[in-house]
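Before a colleague's protein record goes any further, I have to sign it off. What it holds is a sequence and that sequence's fold in token form. Would you go through it and say whether the fold makes sense for this chain? The record follows directly below this note.
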Amino acid sequence: MSDYVTNEQYPHLGGNFAQGDPACFSASAFRYCLDNFDISTVMDVGSGQGHTALWFRDQGCAVTAVEGLPENVERAVVPTTAHDLTQ
């Protein structure tokens, strides 16, 4: 498996790093939001394989993950809804 996930059949869905993208993940920023804004539910749209959604779930949030690339949905670390938002 490549470190970068894309699908030639769905180029409009872009791609993602299979292990999660450290440039898009900031536990300290997420923690600040949880501690200061009474957040209990999270929707992760374009969730990739669900690493950020998993972090929020592990913090006690109810999480909904939505992803378009079928291979990400199949390999997701949290239950993920398959949906192409352009459809």
